[in-house]
Backbone:
């Protein structure tokens, strides 16, 4: 490999590791969002699902590791240190294998995950009181913004304990169909209805969520493929640079 090619490979690898560092920061940020967010669909699942909490910690760990790898990769590329380049290649290979394994497991376990999610949300609907609970207010926000009602449909609310024990007909206020005429619309809690027909959306939130995933599936797959290609490119560049380094010169490494 000529000196010009080595220099080009070195700086391409440096830029790649800079991108990898940024991707790591984004992954860690997403993990923190899953762990701390209280205004999205995630918050509804988080309180009852230990799996989601574990997944958020895994994302934070992977993001932190990716940032550390990006930093070490930058140092190894600029100063041509073979041991760092070899360690970087090995870690990147392990991460790629872990990502593929996780994707395969999620694909083949998707029905059981969907079943677990359904049980969590249906259990929350049964015990819904409309009080100041994060999960309940988050679910109200989801129903309003996604224009849906219940998990599979508005019939899920008929299993609610408070609705069953009430002497007056009640429905979820956040299910209120804003296109229908009627009284002022409340954002949370349970509302009384006087008409024979419930003034609510007829679509379950599972259908709205599946529709959103289907509409954005191309973007999701594109991101996953893009990350895998970038990782493979980084492995190739690090291996090429590692093979081109005949003798390491540690005098170039800054000493503090």
Residues:
């Amino acid at each position: 490999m000529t000196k010009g090619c080595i220099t080009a490979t070195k700086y391409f690898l440096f830029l790649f590791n800079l991108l990898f560092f940024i991707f790591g920061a984004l992954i860690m940020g997403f993990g923190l969002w899953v762990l701390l967010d209280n205004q999205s669909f995630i918050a509804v699942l988080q309180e009852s699902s230990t799996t989601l909490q574990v997944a958020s910690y895994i994302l934070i760990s992977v993001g932190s590791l990716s940032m550390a790898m990006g930093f070490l990769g930058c140092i190894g590329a600029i100063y041509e240190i073979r041991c760092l380049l070899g360690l970087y290649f090995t870690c990147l290979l392990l991460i790629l294998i872990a990502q593929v394994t996780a994707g395969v497991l999620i694909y083949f376990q998707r029905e059981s995950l969907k079943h677990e999610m359904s049980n969590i949300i249906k259990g929350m609907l049964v015990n819904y009181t409309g009080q100041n609970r994060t999960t309940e207010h988050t679910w109200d926000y989801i129903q309003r913004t996604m224009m849906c009602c219940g998990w599979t449909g508005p019939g899920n609310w008929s299993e609610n304990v408070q609705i069953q024990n009430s002497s007056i007909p009640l429905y979820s206020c956040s299910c209120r169909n804003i296109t229908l005429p009627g009284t002022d619309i409340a954002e949370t809690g349970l509302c009384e209805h006087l008409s024979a027909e419930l003034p609510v959306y007829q679509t379950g939130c599972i259908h709205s969520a599946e529709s959103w995933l289907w509409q954005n599936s191309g973007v999701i797959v594109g991101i996953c493929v893009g990350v895998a290609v970038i990782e493979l490119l980084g492995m190739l560049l690090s291996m090429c640079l590692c093979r081109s380094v005949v003798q390491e010169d540690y005098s170039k490494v800054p000493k503090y």
